[in-house]
Amino acid sequence: MKTNTFLTGSVLTVAVLGCGGVSGIPIEKTATDFAKAICSAAYKCCTAETLMGNASAGMTEAECEMKTATDFRNQLQNMQNSENAGRSKYDQMQVDKCLEAIRGASCETLTSIRKVSGLPACDSTFATPLVAVGGACSNDFECIDSVCADGKCAAGTPVGGSCVGTGNKCAQNLSCDPRNGSDDTWCATASSAIPGFPASAPIIPCSALV
After folding, report:
1. What is each CA distance from 38 to 72, 90, 95, 195, in whole angstroms?
2. Domain map of the chain by residue range?
3. pLDDT for 142-199, tens place per residue?
């Protein structure tokens, strides 16, 4: 399971979005494609009541598409920035496989998963990492078999180690979980972690969308 995730909230520029970015990631098209596939599934498989708590679901399928596309644009711009810096390589082929899987999935399948990455074809960071341990990074997905901690790719804290405080980020494929319900937290196998593209990818189809 690939638990490196993309960061959200990148500042977008009209010029870059208009051409899909310096290296050619089709930001607008990909954001729209994901929004249409996800929102179509949500409104086909879910009731209005089950979608009410979803921040990106909106009140209509069109509103869902608008909000969801915005989420993806932010993520894709972040990926474009990373690729421009030579830290990762966007994987269009895997993105296409994920879109195909979403469009072809049954409602039974979609309502049995927690998020997009619950589909095997979507369990991916959709990027090839190019930064070795010790190299500068901004995102986990840039790091080869490691995580981005304090601006550098690092092995991260192993299973059982504390993830409290600065510099104690869990290793790849691990998540930070409470220890026996206390305020202390430790790194554990991320059996319930939600990896994939993007970090805030809408859950399909009836849970919180962001």
Report:
1. 11, 21, 13, 17
2. 14-127, 140-189
3. 999 999 998 999 998 888 888 877 678 888 888 887 755 555 678 887 543 333 444 4
